[in-house]
Every structure is written in structure tokens, then in C-alpha cells.
């Protein structure tokens, strides 16, 4: 009888492990850094990003790999678990085939069409955000996932003991 319980516990543990790995392949936790997405998201807020988000639309918030210092994306596309890359959180304003909104022009001229396979993204706090106005359109292949807000960082003071 005891052997049956041990076997059942092992099966449940194995299934739970597979389930956790399956979730990790679909979702990634991201912490917002800086004020560029205020007021929607503040520094320290936690987001879940769904990998392989499917069709992205204007209004979606995405987590994507920022360009290297010279403004290009020469590095290979980041793989799951790559923590050495600089991830950015921004809102999609236009997708491939859409015109760049006139009042958001910058690196891409107003009225120019966003190239297929690219996104025009902006931070909600336009005054401090480094976004498509400065770095240009973002290749969709550099998107880690579509963000879902899951919690604000605690603003309560923590007493040390």
C-alpha cells in the first residue's frame, strides 16, 4: 500500500514539474525599470509577458530587446533565459503596414508606413521614453512577449529587525 502512495506522489511531482516547465516556456516575469511607462506602469512593477503572443495590435504593451548601443540589432535574436540583453517595455502605436502617426514622428518620418514585421512603439511617459521616435521601428522578432500587468511594487516601508 505504501509503495502505491510513493508511486502516486512521484507521478504527481513529475506532472507538476512538466506543468511548470510548460508555463515557463509560455510566460516570463519582467520587472519595469525606469519611469518611461508611467502612469500605467511604475518602476518596480511586475509584468507577465506571454511569449509568442500571436498578432500584436496598437495598444498592446510589449517587452522587447533593445538595440545595441549603435542603434542596430546585430546580435542574434535572444533565446529563452538570456538575461544579458536589455529588455524594454513599451506600448505598440502602429504595426507593419500602418502609417507612423504624424504627432509621434521621430526616427521614422510622419506618414511613412511601418515596414512589415516591425512595430512602432512608444513609452506612455513620452517626455522621458527612449522609443521608436529615437530608435526607429522595432523588428517583431525582437519581441519577447506581450505584457500583462500583475502587480505594483510595495510602497510600504519595511522595518528591519
UniProtKB/TrEMBL annotation:
It is found in: Cell membrane. Keywords: Hydrolase. One of its GO terms (molecular function) is signal peptidase activity. Its EC number is 3.4.21.89. It is a single-pass type II membrane protein. Residues 7-100, 111-148 form the Peptidase S26 domain. InterPro entries: LexA/Signal_pep-like_sf (IPR036286), Pept_S26A_signal_pept_1 (IPR000223), Pept_S26A_signal_pept_1_CS (IPR019758), Peptidase_S26 (IPR019533). This is Signal peptidase I. It comes from Amycolatopsis magusensis.
Amino acid at each position: 500500500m505504501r509503495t502505491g502512495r510513493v508511486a502516486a506522489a512521484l507521478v504527481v511531482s513529475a506532472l507538476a514539474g512538466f506543468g511548470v516547465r510548460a508555463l515557463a516556456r509560455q510566460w516570463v516575469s519582467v520587472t519595469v525599470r525606469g519611469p518611461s511607462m508611467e502612469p500605467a506602469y511604475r518602476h518596480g512593477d511586475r509584468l507577465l509577458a506571454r511569449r509568442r503572443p500571436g498578432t500584436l495590435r496598437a495598444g498592446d504593451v510589449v517587452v522587447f530587446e533593445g538595440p545595441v548601443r549603435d542603434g542596430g540589432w546585430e546580435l542574434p535574436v535572444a533565446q529563452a533565459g538570456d538575461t544579458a540583453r536589455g529588455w524594454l517595455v513599451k506600448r505598440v502605436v502602429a504595426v507593419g503596414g500602418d502609417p507612423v502617426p504624424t504627432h509621434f514622428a521621430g526616427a521614422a518620418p510622419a506618414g511613412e508606413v511601418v515596414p512589415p514585421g516591425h512595430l512602432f512603439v512608444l513609452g506612455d511617459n513620452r517626455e522621458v521614453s527612449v522609443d521608436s521616435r529615437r530608435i526607429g521601428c522595432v523588428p517583431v522578432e525582437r519581441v519577447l512577449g506581450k505584457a500583462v500587468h500583475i502587480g505594483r511594487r510595495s510602497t510600504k516601508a519595511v522595518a528591519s529587525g
